[in-house]
Design goal:
The chain is an all-alpha fold. It is built from one helix and no strands.
Length: 44
């Protein structure tokens, strides 16, 4: 019984973490890709 409750809480926590971190991941990808692209152009 406790295992089922723990699994449910883990699933809910995982989904919540995904929803909360998604906007930040998108922003990081956006700015990370832009800075990497400019860095690559500078090196070449």
């Amino acid at each position: 019984m406790f295992r089922a409750i723990a699994d449910a809480l883990r699933t809910v926590g995982s989904a919540l973490a995904t929803v909360v971190t998604l906007p930040f991941r998108l922003l990081a990808k956006l700015f990370g890709g832009a800075s990497r692209g400019s860095g690559r152009a500078r090196r070449v």
